[in-house]
Amino acid sequence: MVALTLAISDYDHARDLIDGRVRADGIELTALTLSIEEIFYRFTRYREWDVSEMSMGKYVALLSQDDRSLTAIPVFPSRVFRHSSIYVRRDGPVRRPEDLKGRRVGLPEWAQTAAVYSRGLLMHEHGLRLQDIEWIQAGVNQAGRIEKVALKLPAGVTLTPNPGKTLNDMLLAGELDAVLTAHPPQAVKSGDPRMVRLFEDYRVVEEAYYRRTGIFPIMHCIAIKSDVLARHPWIALNLFKAFEEAKRLSQARASEVTATRFPIAWIYDTARQAADLFGADFFPYGIEPNRTTLEAFLAYAHEQGVCHRPVKLDELFPATVASSFKV
């Protein structure tokens, strides 16, 4: 039995593994449920546990710089379409994506996974170039945030850190024309009518985007410290299977009609709609069901300077078990 520590946010689709109802064969797991921000900071900087939820953006950035201290498995605990994470002022000059040309746009980190997808859709769906925008980096609601990985920005791209201010305040003050962020600005969270999403009917737009592109954005993966994996190479597949089983049980709960397992009306109908759109496994792990998304993300990350070189899909996951992950 191998003792491992895992840090992950509090997801229902991981809960059965976290609380021990699902067990990974041969592994004694100590699970810590922490905030995403704390997990990423402590694991990226200090590698405090053996297995961790990890930003896809940070992971591929490190790989592109030949930092192989981490090895991911194709378990994706967080997936979110990112049309909904572009914010503007209600009375501002931006009404459609094309209006961002020549504007000042803020983001919490250039290498934030959500920002990679947002910039990717602006470029490939709406014809904007990275050089068309003046980019500002700052904390969303708390000043002082900085990039956590080195960047290799394309020629002509302007990215200016502003650690003394927040994106929320700068957008409200008219110092920015839009903000790309996974975490909503405080004005949106508090219902301030001055700030709105660029795509107000975002679900309709995002569903159409998926049908057209096949991209279901992956935000996070599960990463294992490579020295741990080198000693116990079998733990990758065993952890994958356990995460897969925990997710299956969660999907079954969400689909239950007889008794509502989540405090959300019509949750079972929402699960049915998700299955209609994405397939029976409406939150897939593994390589093949996610090939389109992963390849698009790797292309975006390189063209945006998050990756210092092109990273291939077959570099992301352990070569010894990658074929087993094609499920």
Word description of this protein:
- This protein is α/β, with parallel strands linked by helices and 327 residues long.
- The protein folds into two domains: 2-79 and 218-292 and 312-319, D-Maltodextrin-Binding Protein, domain 2 (3-Layer(aba) Sandwich), CATH 3.40.190; 83-213, Periplasmic binding protein-like II (D-Maltodextrin-Binding Protein, domain 2), CATH 3.40.190.
- It has eleven helices and eleven strands.
- A six-stranded mixed sheet has the order 8-7-6-9-5-10. A five-stranded mixed sheet has the order 2-1-3-11-4.
- The longest helix is centred in the last third of the chain and has 21 residues, at 235-255.
- The protein is globular.
- The two termini are 26 Å apart.
- The model has no long low-confidence stretch (mean pLDDT 96).
List keywords for this structure.
single chain; 327 residues; alpha/beta; D-Maltodextrin-Binding Protein, domain 2; 11 helices
